[in-house]
Amino acid sequence: MKSTGITRRIDDLGRIVIPKEIRKNLKIKENEILEVFVENENIILKKFSSFDDMDKTFTRFIEVLENITFNSVLITNRDKILNTSINKKYDYLNKEIGRDIINCISNKEDLLNKGLVELIVNKQIDTNCYIKPIINNGDTLGSIVIFGNKNIEEKDILAVEIISKLIINYID
Hints:
Elements: H1 20-25, E1 34-39, E2 42-47, H2 55-69, E3 72-76, E4 81-84, H3 89-92, H4 99-107, E5 111-120, E6 123-136, E7 139-148, H5 154-171
Helix pairs in contact: 2-5
């Protein structure tokens, strides 16, 4: 564990303030959920993700989408790429998401794009893509992205919508 040298008092309601610099570095936003762990005498806070431990499920969903759309597939949380097509693992897995995915997640809006797109930070690619935020009870959990040289058709968008709903039902 790395010390920051920062100390905080607990108020009368048992709250502490996480310093702005730490929240900014860890990309912890207002109203974000943190999970609390206790290890010996240490209290550990971790960004909560409903997508933890869903790797096998995501792999199956990705296989289905690849077979229907003939495109590469990414599944993200709000920060990074959690799972991807077998042939894209090295290029994308665990990489920080790019501004186009961040914008879709933040705005809770789909993006259908033909041309340059930033799927991972500071790397634009020329591709056809569709980005679908995964929204549950008003909270955006992540996104599904399909991309490749093939044009994105209505059936592809419908398949992504269905997988998005299946993911939401799976975590509920």
